Sequence to fold (436 residues):
Amino acid sequence: MEKSDRVGSASGGKDYRPMWKELGLNLEAHDQLLNVLGQAYKDIYMKQENRPKGMQYLDFVISEAHGLRIEELMETKKKGNKVVGTFCVYVPEELILAVGGTCVGLCAGAEIGIDEAEKVLPRNTCALIKSFMGFKLAGLCPYIQASDLVVGETTCDGKKKAYEILNDYKETYVMEIPQMKTERDRTLWRGEIVQFKEKVEQLTGRNITVENLRQGIKIANDKRLALQRLSRLRKATPPPISGLDALLVNQIAFYDDPLRFTKSVNDLCDELEDRIKKGIGVTKNGTPRILVSGSPMAVPNWKVPYIIETSGAIVVAEESCVGERSTRDLVKEDGNTLDEMIDAITDRYMKIDCACFTPNLERIDHILELAKEFKVDGVVHYSIQFCTPYTVEAHKVEKALQQKGIPMLKIETDYGMEDMGQLKTRIEAFLEIVKK
Ligand code: BJ8
Fold:
């Protein structure tokens, strides 16, 4: 990709409308989406001061998220490769990469399209589910249109029931995710991975072999290692990158080309290391350091970190699937047979501590570890409105943090902007407590 100065594919540059039309998008509604996204990006991202130069690549990727990136996907499809759309970090990307496929995240973080979603889903469904459903029904998402296979999973009730409806509009393959972590659950999950491997082989007409799976595992691990490196650098005081920028990197990880993305994140990390050596940061020393924990934030869901960072604090880590939860564990690379490799994949994914599991004590331990390692002054627990798993689990998180004397603020919100003022007041009041 070459550098561009555009924000939002709707403004200037190459005309992608023929491609969007061919993909079956609703051009008028899609233009509106890009305009809203472009404006939000300018207001939230481009107004930040002292951003690392390496963020220019990410600015460009976001500007071409519906343009050049989709064109790349269409090109790879012409060569016989497949695009697989997913909604959850449980879907093993390694198997898709092994056969030259591309994995793209389909979760959405915008309110536009929700009216359409509410025609088929109850109003009290979480905004993430309504958003991806709305994007499909309103013809807004080129990624789902470009996908040769869409993969859902039995995580929360809202998602698994929504996939039944989504299947009426786009065929959706569903993986069964266990609810607990006993040996029996591991066996079930391993069986699901083997079945998914067969599905991917059938879709692509290519066999998954020891050689190509080794390659797939390496590509996915390298991406995670780059993101882990970025995360570690945020432990510095002052942090060399804002929470908003780091969140964006984690969001883009779900749809950029993995090799190019990994290289760009490592380049960004080189720059951040240099900043740390020179004592350059994005905030002054003494700025409250916040851990955001909870439901995932898909593009363009930037509301809560934006409010935190414009209220005098900095987000230093995200305990979320768009953050630490999806990057901290690697697949062991020492397998020599397909069976060993499938075992390694099974074990890696069984470690994910999503609130859909019960009990889910690993998540609590992990939040406490992050709070300590990143020297956080407070935790903002974020749940998407009507997300039962994270909203309920917030109680146990708060109790564990209280015992360690770490203040926590519980936030439950949707993708709308109506509560911006109210949230800002609550976050500012919380930061006053944190500063004491
Ligand atoms: S592994 S967090 S990506 S399921 S926000 S739809 S949980 S009601 S997104 Fe998730 Fe996989 Fe878990 Fe991660 Fe349901 Fe909650 Fe909505 Fe959610």
